[in-house]
Amino acid sequence: MVERQTFASKFVPHLVLIVGVCIVAFPVYLALLASTYDAASVQTGKMTLVPGGQMIENYSRIIFSGTNSSTREPVGTMLLNSLIMALCVSLGKIAISLISAYAIVFFRFPFRMTAFWLIFVTLMLPVEVRIFPTYKIVVDLGLLDTYAGLTVPLIASATATLLFRQFFMTVPGELVEASKIDGAGPYKFFVDTLLPLSVTTIAALFVIQFIYGWNQYLWPLLITTRDSMQTVVIGIKKMITTQDALTEWQLAMATAVLALLPPVFVVVVMQKLFVKGLVETEK
pTM here? Predict the structure, then answer.
């Protein structure tokens, strides 16, 4: 039986979606507008809903020169630091989780499940809980103001290990036996069989972990003492000073808009694989 759809049943869902998109997008549009005006117009509230004429000047200044007050480094350097951190964290989490899940599922060794549950228990220990001992180790190793100090403590991921383990457990045993008959060793089976099957899961985790690494604030704030190593999230916070009259809001909004672009780009480019990796059940 085919249910007849009325005009209201088609119009109302679209209206709700449009209203929701407008509510979410309007603050971003305001940030974009503010980045095209001068400081006086933004601070006095004389902004209109039409872009101003200072866009090229504001963006060129913030990308290549910085604010020269709250942060002396250009946003281009901050974006590069954030990009390196996000890529290293996301790729490192995926690589370590793939290997650990592969060992837990396909190798039989003593205390195999104990190792898995120890990894799983670390879900209850976020960075904030273990921040002091982690910071102490990084300082002792001389990793302050380095990319290794920014990324290595955040690489391990129990969530990604759990997801890969659950996926690997769905791989038919016949496929493993066929690979052994073909003479494939553990490495060849992992590279030629499991990795191609895991593409959608890897893509979904990459998007999630990239955004996680890009949005990190507390750890980069602790581990970086030089302006040249700070990330864009820290840069935005430093631009917004406690004294409102000193805040160059047009530059802060321009930085916020630039900080949105890489995560949005990753989500748009990998959208199909991301959705497929989250909803696909039969591999």
Answer: 0.85
